[in-house]
């Protein structure tokens, strides 16, 4: 896997029946190591290790229904009241973060309703805030955990 523009962390890899796997500490299981999973696991480590987001409030690959199709959000961080706080859409490093990627995340967030949305391919990272009227503003960093958009 390529080096990412995310902090390094202590990950576990193994070979199982000819497939490289990475251990997901949140789900407590081994997963196939794909480029997107590599980014997702690094982003989880960033949220928990650098930004002190509580891992107990982080959900990986949660199912949701978007326009009558079942989709999976990459990461959703909940606040202490159990409300969505941050939706994160991860892509493989070779996938450019473009308007269609943002639109995908916003479609997911139409259902999830988090005030913050982040996009990452492990190399580039974009963070947005949605105000109650739906106006999108780009931020320079991830929000501090628990910071409401009205604070």
Automatic annotation (TrEMBL):
GO terms for molecular function: endonuclease activity. Residues 35-143 form the Type I restriction enzyme R protein N-terminal domain. It holds the Pfam family HSDR_N_2. The keyword Nuclease applies. Keywords: Endonuclease, Hydrolase, Nuclease. This is Restriction endonuclease subunit R. It comes from Siphonobacter curvatus.
């Amino acid at each position: 896997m390529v080096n990412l523009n995310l902090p390094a962390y202590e990950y576990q890899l193994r070979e199982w029946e000819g497939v490289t796997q990475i251990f997901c500490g949140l789900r407590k299981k081994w997963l196939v190591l794909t480029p997107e999973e590599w980014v997702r696991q690094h982003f989880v480590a960033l949220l928990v290790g650098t930004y002190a987001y509580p891992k107990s409030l982080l959900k990986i690959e949660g199912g949701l229904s978007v326009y009558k199709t079942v989709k999976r959000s990459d990461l959703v961080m909940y606040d202490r009241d159990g409300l969505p706080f941050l939706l994160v859409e991860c892509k493989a490093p070779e996938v450019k973060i473009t308007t269609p990627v943002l639109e995908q995340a916003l479609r997911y967030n139409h259902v999830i309703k988090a005030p913050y949305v982040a996009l990452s391919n492990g190399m580039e990272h974009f963070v947005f805030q949605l105000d109650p009227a739906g106006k999108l503003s780009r931020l320079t960093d991830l929000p501090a955990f628990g910071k409401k958009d009205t604070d």
